[in-house]
Amino acid sequence: MLRHGFESYYVIGEGLLGESGRGRQLLSATAAPPFRFSRMGPSGVGRQLGDPNLRKIAAAITAGASSPASGVPAGFTYLGQFIDHDLTFDKTNVMLGQNVTPAQLLQARSPSLDLDSLYGAGPQDPASAKFYESDGLHLKMGDAIAAGGEPAFPKHDLPRVGVGSSNAAKRTALIPDPRNDENLAVAQTHLAFIRFHNRVVDTLPSSTPAAQKFAAARELVTKHYQWMIRTDFLPRICKQSVVTDVFGHGRKAFEVGAVPTDVPTMPIEFSVAAYRLGHSMIRAAYNWNKDFDAGGGTLDYLFEFSGLSGDLGGNLKLASNWVADFRRLYDFAEAGKANLTVPAAKFNRARRIDTKIANPLHDLPSGTVGDPAIPDEDPRRNLAFRNLVRGKMVKLATGQQMVRFLKNKGITLNGLSRPQIRDGNGGADLGTLTTNQRNALLTNTPLWFYVLREAELNNGAMRGVGGRIVAETFHRAMEGSEFSIVRDTAFRPSLGPNNTTFRMVDLLMFAFEGNGALLNPLGD
Question: Are 242 and 463 in contact (CB under 8 A)?
């Protein structure tokens, strides 16, 4: 699952659902699962890849009309992508086979919020040791090279391999999950987490035994990360009452009654539909830094100046004039740091979560799609079309099916009416569909479209079906993690302003030492 290709899904009890010209097929019920998915609700009905409904719906979603900006700082869009890669990271890719027990293999193919995408299998694993400095404690960082009249900035790029038979090999990010170098925004987010870990290592009490330092640092980092997700990230994308109910009273729909330390699974309703909410938050352009201001940080450039989707602008390391200005991505006024804020006109806010996605996503770059043979403007390059096709491939339940399923679990929610699905609130216009096509959509609404329409009708916050799927999946992923604030109910943050508060701005403040020259090395 390194790119936006049509992945395979090993669904427990169903086998490996694989790609074919007719959609997903049951290939094998005994194959070793590359990643363990489950089905939270009922099975839907698959359709063929050429379904004209999907193409028309996808075209409406990417029609180009702009969604209104939300109140959510744009950095949370890419924090959400970083979290997604943590949830779906297959640690077996970086584990040395002969040292791995069957139990570890099972755990390594499970969704959890343990930051495996940051740590790999740890510094003691021979295949993961390359991500660490020689002390086995600090994670490596890379340097941004001088460019565009800006000086070099040490420790402002991901570490890169630097050797190989091609430039592409040399610029490959030396991190456990290559997907975190898919675009510049998520790459800089990953770098911020490297800095966070390293700063935690440096600030551990001197009494911490040397042999316990890494484990102590990782536990502290992971629990603060989970606290930030629970109290800062989730309430920005989901209705607060849904998050409060799930974390206060437990799950009602997903792996209810599971032994907390048992290996979690990943519901396909979350992975293939509900958590693809982030696609609608992506902007076409950003006020990236002082050199690429006024929308100069286009989405195309963010792909180009990465090592997975692009070529770092032809360099082997990140150009220094593309280092992020984190003040434009997160609102440090939330932490009372007015000196670390920018004028409103320069600040980036995410697009509202709704049934529109930015027009550039209708034609993804070949490096992201993973298949250069697909021509430009082909529907298979359209991210909305790809999302809808995936849902049909795995026979995902419709929005209406999930409403009935959740109600049967004792969850109070109101399903969308046909006029609400049809008209929305300033989202995708379904006027290009024929009457029959529109009736089919209103009767059996693809789950991804349904949960986005829910959010669109709720001022951009996930509620109902979508909110419940997201909140319950996150709760289980935290519960089943090696370090868990769900199981450790006594945990309180110690790296923020007080013992109840730890937000993403607090994480960045700690990671970058509250230093504006590190959060924004290019200056104003």
Answer: yes
Nearest to 78 by CA among 388, 348, 332: 348
Assessment of whether the complete model's pTM goes beyond 0.85: yes
Burial code (b: 16+ CB inside 10 Å, e: under 16) for 437-460 equals bbeebbebbbbbbbbbbbbbbbeb
Q: Is the pLDDT of residue 20 over 90?
A: no
Rounded to whole angstroms, the Cα distance separating 50 from 390 reads: 13
Burial of 166 (0-12, 13-18, 19+ CB in 10 A): exposed
Lowest mean pLDDT among 26-40, 74-88, 167-181, 247-261: 26-40
* In a domain? residue 2: no
The CA–CA distances, whole Å, from 206 to 133, 136, 210, 213 equal: 20, 17, 9, 10
Q: How far apart are CA 221 and CA 197, in angstroms?
A: 6
* Residue 3, domain member (yes or no): no
Query: What is the CB-side half-sphere exposure of residue 173 using CA atoms within 13 A?
Result: 33
Q: Are 131 and 175 in contact (CB under 8 A)?
A: yes
Structural domain span for residue 470 = 9-519
Residue 343 above 80 pLDDT? yes
The structural domain count of the chain equals 1
SS3 content of the chain, % helix, strand, coil (to 5): 45, 10, 45
Following CA atoms 53, 54, 60, 63 in sequence, which dihedral angle do they give, to the nearest 10 degrees?
Answer: -140
**358 close to 299: Cβ distance less than 8 angstroms:** yes
Do the beta carbons of residue 401 and residue 469 sit within 8 Å? no
Quick one: CA dihedral 380, 383, 385, 391, positive or negative? positive
- How many other C-beta atoms can be found within 10 angstroms of the C-beta atom of residue 417? 10
How far apart are alpha carbons 380 and 358 in whole angstroms? 16
Q: Which two tokens stand for residue 487?
A: 């199981």
375-382: which pairs have CB atoms within 8 A and are 24 or more residues apart? 379/55, 379/58, 382/58, 382/59, 382/62
| 524 belongs to a structural domain | no
The pLDDT value recorded for residue 457 is: 97
| Tokens describing residue 218 | 């990782």
User: Within a 10 A sphere around the Cβ of 4, how many other Cβ atoms?
Assistant: 23
Given a contact cutoff of 8 angstroms between Cβ atoms, the answer to whether 273 and 454 are in contact is no
- The answer as to whether 335 is a domain residue is yes
Tell me how far apart the alpha carbons of residues 263 and 250 are, in angstroms, rounded to a whole number: 17
CATH number for 310: 1.10.640
Task: Return all residues near 216 (Cβ < 8 A) that are at least 6 apart.
Answer: 204, 208
Q: Is the pLDDT of residue 157 over 80?
A: yes
